[in-house]
Structures are given as C-alpha cells and as structure tokens.
Amino acid sequence: NNTVIYLCTILTGLVEFTNAFASLDIYIFVSSVVINLCHFSILTRKSMRSTSINLVMASVAVADILSQIYGIYRNVEVYLESQCYDFWYYLVFYENKLFWLQTTVRRYSTFLGFSISLIRTLVIRYPMSSNLEKLPQPKTSLYFITAVIFITLPSTVLGFFEYSEMYNGEMECENEQGGKYNSYFSTYSDFLKTITFVFCQIIPCLLYPFSTFLLVLELRKATESRKRLSSGQKNLDSNRTTKLILYLTLTFFVAEFPLGIIFLVDSSLTFQEDFYFLSNVLLFSFYNFFSVLLSLNTCFHMFICLVMSTQYREAVKGIVFC
C-alpha cells in the first residue's frame, strides 16, 4: 500500500508539473511563429541563399511555423468550447486536419534536419569529390526537399484520410465528437501508427544524431590537414558551421525522439492491459510536455545561428541597419 501511495504521489506530481508547463503553451506557440518568421526572412536574404544548408534551414523554419498552428487552434477551440458555441462539427473537422498538418510538417522537419547534417558530413569527408561538389550549391536544397516530400508521402496521405468527418446536425453544448475514424483505419490504426512512427520518426531521429556524430569525427580528421592548406579564419568558420549543426541536432533530439517513443508506446497499448488508464495519463502528460518543449526548442534556432554564424550576423546587420 505504501508503495502504491508513493507511486501515485510521484505520478500526481509529474502530471501537475507537465500540466503547469503545458499551460504556457500558447505563449510559446506564438513566440515560435514570430521568431521563425524572422529566422526565415534572414535565411532567404540574397547573401544567405548562397548555400544549400541555409535554404534547407529556411524550409525547416517554415515547417516549424506551420507546426505551431495546431497548438494555437487548440487554445482557441478550448475558449470556444467554454463559451458553448454550437458548431462542434467544424471545430473537430479543423482540429483533425490541423493535427494532420502538424504531424506532417514535423516529419518534414525531422528529415530536413537530417539532410543538413548529411550534406555537411559528405562535404567535409569528400572535399575533392567531383560528384559531391554540387552539394553546397543552392539548387541542391530543392532536391533534398523534394526527396523528403516523396519519402514521407505514404504516411502523409494515410494521415490525411485517417478521419472521416460526419455531420450529425446541431449538437447540444457538450463534449461530443463530430468526427470518427474511418473504418479502415480503425481496424489497422495501431499497425499503421507503428509503421509510421518507426520509419518516419524513430529512425530519422536516430540517424540525425548519428550523422552529426560522424560529422564531428570527420571535422577532427580534416582540421589538421586544413591548417596546412587554408587560413585560420577559414578553419574557424568551418568549425562554427559544424558546431551550429551539432547544437541544432541537440535541441531537436531532446524533444522529437521522446515524442516518437511516446507515440510508439501508445500504439502498442490495448484496453485489456493492466494499468491502461494510468499509462494513458502518463503518456498524455509526457506528450504535452515534449510537444511544448519541441516548440520551445524551435525558438532557439535563430539565436543559435546568430551566435555561431558570422554570415548570419552580417545578414541581421543588413536588415537592422538597412
């Protein structure tokens, strides 16, 4: 009994903490949109469009902006529900589609982040390769963005048709759902979710830090040889670019990977299992916490670039003192 009471106390404290953190979500969502709009405007300036990495980072900023819309909408929806507005069908319809948008662009962000690390690793490892000399060029970013869209296309299409919204006429002011799972997805929902989260979230999340680790190793190998061939300032700029990617990887991994684990565990739970309700409470609390943390992390991308990139700072100066 004492053990159960102790565990319940820990669970209650954890839920209260995650709920308190999640209560700040609207401020974080709005801040992320504003900051990433500024980030995008800087990365797309003429002086910054000279490399594929900057343009891929700009596309990540767009994905980060779009991923906040669902959270902002949910806050608006909660307010409308409290005011007892009679259009539940429309609320649920847009909520479903915006949640699909959020999960889709988060997948884009994951793969695009991996692309940034991959480009940098290949450029450093094979600096004299004629086949890879075009990787830093701006048009390369279009190939990577297109590849990401096609790689994630099956899960994107499946996610869009996961719900079939049905209008049930005017409903009373109560928490009734105006949509339901498509019968096909209700049958294979757990399987499809597992496949999606493993191949579109877990695996990229593991590849992202792994490729960054390889990037750091390759940088160390290349540093000594570059000291003999190039100026100290050029080496410093190269090191800063690599560190920039490393820090972006860390901020991404700390939230996105736990979210992938949460979705994977959630898809494996069944109503018949012991402690199903308790597990759901924990998973929901962790989901809220890491979702808000992921949005918070997107706010730091601009400042990391500002600290680590001389080119980025010059672009900011050009905007401020134009």
Descriptors:
mainly alpha, 322 residues, globular, 2 strands, 2% strand, single chain, Rhopdopsin 7-helix transmembrane proteins, two-stranded antiparallel ribbon, 11 helices, G protein-coupled peptide receptor activity
Q: How many strands appear in the DSSP assignment?
A: 2
CATH A-level architecture: Up-down Bundle
Number of helical segments with 4 or more residues? 11
Largest sheet: 2 strands, antiparallel
Q: Biggest sheet, strands in spatial order? A: 1-2
User: How big a fraction of the residues is strand?
Assistant: under 5%
Distance between the first and last residues' Cα: 69 Å
Order of helices and strands: HHHHHHEEHHHHH
Q: Provide the helix percentage.
A: over 70%
CATH H-level superfamily: Rhodopsin 7-helix transmembrane proteins
What is the name of the CATH topology? Rhopdopsin 7-helix transmembrane proteins
In angstroms, what is the radius of gyration?
22 Å
Give the CA-based shape.
globular
Which whole number gives the mean pLDDT? 75
User: Would you identify the regions where 5 or more consecutive residues have pLDDT less than 50?
Assistant: 166-179
- Regarding CATH, which class? Mainly Alpha
Transmembrane segments: 20-43, 140-161, 195-217, 244-265, 285-307
Keywords: Membrane, Transmembrane, Transmembrane helix
Protein name: Protein CBG10442
Main location: membrane
